[in-house]
TrEMBL record:
It holds the Pfam family 5_nucleotid_C. Residues 56-281 form the Calcineurin-like phosphoesterase domain. Residues 370-548 form the 5'-Nucleotidase C-terminal domain. The lineage of its organism: Bacteria, Bacillati, Bacillota, Bacilli, Bacillales. It is found in: Cell envelope. Keywords: Hydrolase, Metal-binding, Multifunctional enzyme, Nucleotide-binding, Signal. InterPro entries: 5'-Nucleotdase_C, 5'-Nucleotdase_C_sf, 5'-Nucleotdase_CS, 5_nucleotidase/apyrase, Calcineurin-like_PHP, CpdB_N, Metallo-depent_PP-like. The keyword Signal applies. PANTHER family: 2',3'-CYCLIC-NUCLEOTIDE 2'-PHOSPHODIESTERASE_3'-NUCLEOTIDASE, 5'-NUCLEOTIDASE-RELATED. Belongs to the 5'-nucleotidase family. This is 2',3'-cyclic-nucleotide 2'-phosphodiesterase. It comes from Geomicrobium sediminis.
């Protein structure tokens, strides 16, 4: 039966107040209590019970604190570190449940192993499921990346779990019937009374575009808010005292609310708490300061307590409820939301032992050879000039398309282009660097971080220019007459969105307004016109309607071949050492500025700047370096 609930967001016990006081790290955020006098008068009661929901998200198969791309330990990540913190918090909160909201089985190379490299035998279970079973998860929601390896693999993986995987908005084609369990109710005795906790799962409906090759004709999706409106009342009718949305979705109040729908979920009557994710951010935190409906200090969205505990096991989320049971009916007296960093936690020895064989097999695989390159390649300057790493991706994708065209998979006379971006081109170690000589699998995972699949889209000249104009948002607009220092790079624009398109030439005039920056766009020496047609190699995410492309762009070839594997095959099939040469098919239009124009990149970049005429080292700056650009 449905439940009547009283709800107020402030601290409801000295236990929670003490927990907040101990939370001093900048990334450990929680709701602030109202003043102590009001709090005590309103909430302290011998009849209340404390109940906590612990939450993880976006683990992406990072079980150990280990970076497989760099083949070294990383103390900031790992589910084994989450487990150590979890054991502490379980002592603090005897009444609790543990949930995850997806993007769990894919991400690190360890996650790729059973899906693509060493398929599991019939009597073997998925190592990520083994770890989650050991930790005692009560429920999990499917994330978008759960679908990357196909439905058969997903079904087999879920069979290895001792807990339900949930998704209320993935449905049978042409129906509103969920393919997977939409929700579950987990019982627990709390202070002598049974508490029924309902968990309901949601995934971005955009999976139908991102993984169309696996999903088209097999499943469909509902909008997250529509599915919540349909199924949350059913959860209440079936006796859920507390409803927790395991929503693999973020917080957005703009055009991407379909994908990041937390604001909409919070407005559905009956939702008592939310475990969010997908954006790899933190909530409560200043990340979402100023968003309408979001109270960062209280840790709520439209009054509903919520948590988003980062990614890769960097944090554990805690929703702590003070509950009151009156005549068999549970009421919420107060609630608190927080996330706690795992960085200072030890790696859990028992869980480490459980996953060690899989870890060692992964380390062996990532160090297996692929081929040889003649020079170092890196992404230190990939956001300001043509770049060898991006060139390698584009060269490999063009080679793949040429084979498809030769085999008749693509129309013969349509010109071939390729789009690629620098995935890691930032500060503090977030860059790609591959030394000359032998290269291994881990180097290719550094070059192409995500397990995207290669798709080919058809664009006309206008769509091609618009694509490049969106990529040009990588830059701030420069005022040549400004004598003050100006930053060239737009830090709000992710490097992995900065697509460089090969087999055309163009310039980016950063002194112009957004949408008017691409000049001299040519193909084979001729100006690109509206009537021109091109095939462009990209990935399933771009082809699925990312901001770079409008909905009218047609995908003409959907493959299940990973872009990363395309690069590996390109190197393996090359005769001898590969010399990756920049085509320099694009540049920033030369300009003279009254003031210095600067950009920041990796600290190590200062040793690699000698051969770059328009770049000059200025100074070290913490974990990075500052350069001028002219």
């Amino acid at each position: 039966m449905g439940k009547t609930k009283r709800f107020s967001i402030f601290m409801g016990s000295t236990l929670l107040v003490g927990m907040l006081a101990a939370c001093g790290d900048d990334e450990e955020q929680s709701a602030d209590p109202v003043d102590e006098e009001t709090n005590n008068e309103t909430n302290e009661s011998d009849s209340t019970s404390t109940f906590a929901v612990f939450g993880t998200t976006d683990i992406h198969a990072h079980l150990l604190p280990y970076d497989y791309m760099n083949d070294e330990e990383d103390s900031t990540i790992g589910l084994t570190k989450v487990y150590s913190l979890l054991e502490e918090l379980r002592e603090e909160y005897p009444n609790h449940m543990l949930a995850d909201n997806g993007d769990t089985i894919q991400g690190s190379i360890l996650g790729d192993m059973p899906a693509q490299i060493e398929p599991l035998a019939d009597d073997e279970s998925h190592i990520v499921m083994d770890a989650m079973n050991e930790m005692g998860y009560d429920a999990a929601a499917l994330g978008n990346h759960e679908f990357n390896f196909g439905l058969d693999f997903l079904d087999e993986t879920m069979e290895d779990a001792d807990f339900p995987w949930l998704s209320a908005n993935v449905v049978e084609p042409g129906t509103e019937t969920p393919v997977y369990e939409p929700y579950t109710i987990v019982e627990q005795e709390v202070d002598g009374e049974v508490l029924n906790v309902g968990f309901i799962g949601f995934v971005p409906p955009q999976i139908m575009s991102w993984d169309a090759a696996h999903l088209e004709g097999e499943v469909e999706t509902l909008e997250i808010a529509d599915a919540a409106e349909k199924f949350v009342p059913q959860l209440q009718e079936e006796g859920a005292d507390l409803v927790i949305a395991l929503a693999h979705t973020g917080i957005n109040d703009g055009e991407r609310m379909s994908e990041n729908a937390a604001l909409s979920i919070a407005e559905v009557d009956g939702v008592d708490g939310m475990l969010l994710g997908h954006q790899h951010n933190h909530f409560p935190s200043e990340d979402y300061e100023g968003v309408d409906g979001v109270d960062v200090d209280a840790g709520t969205i439209h009054g509903v307590p919520a948590m988003m505990p980062g990614s890769w096991g960097s944090h554990l989320g805690v929703l702590a409820f003070e509950l009151e049971n009156t005549d068999g009916e549970w009421n919420i007296v107060s609630a608190n939301s927080e996330i706690q960093s795992t960085e200072d936690q030890p790696s859990h020895e028992g869980l480490e032992n459980l996953v060690m064989d899989a870890h060692e097999a992964t380390v062996s695989y990532v160090n297996s050879p692929v081929g040889e390159i003649t020079d170092d390649i890196h992404t230190f300057f990939a956001r300001v000039e043509d770049n060898e790493v991006v060139q390698l991706i584009n060269d490999a994708q063009l080679d793949y398309m040429e084979q498809m065209q030769a085999s008749g998979e693509l129309e013969e006379d349509v010109p071939l282009l390729s789009a690629a971006a620098p995935f890691r081109a930032g500060r503090g170690g977030d860059f790609t660097y591959v030394e000359e000589g032998d290269v291994a699998i881990r180097d290719m995972n550094d070059v192409y971080v995500f397990p995207n699949t290669l798709h080919v889209v058809e664009v006309d000249g206008d769509q091609l220019k618009n694509w490049l104009e969106y990529s040009a948002l990588n830059f701030n607009q420069i005022d040549p007459d400004d004598s003050n220092e100006q930053a060239l790079i737009n830090d709000d624009f992710a490097s992995y969105n900065f697509d460089v398109i090969e087999n055309v030439t163009y310039e980016i005039d950063v002194t112009q307004d957004e949408g008017e920056r691409i000049v001299d766009l040519q193909h084979e020496g001729e100006d690109v016109t509206s009537d021109d047609r091109f095939y462009v190699a990209t990935n399933n995410y771009r082809a699925g309607g990312e901001d770079h492309l409008d909905s009218s762009v047609e995908t003409v070839l959907e493959t299940t071949d990973e872009n990363r594997q395309v690069i590996i095959d390109y190197i393996v099939n090359h005769d001898g050492a590969l010399n990756v040469e920049r085509s320099n098919n694009w540049q920033i239009t030369p300009f003279e500025s009254a003031g210095e124009v600067i950009f920041e990149t990796a600290l190590e970049a200062q040793d690699a700047s000698d051969d770059h005429e328009r770049i000059e080292f200025i100074e070290e700056d913490g974990d990075g370096a500052t350069f001028s650009f002219n």
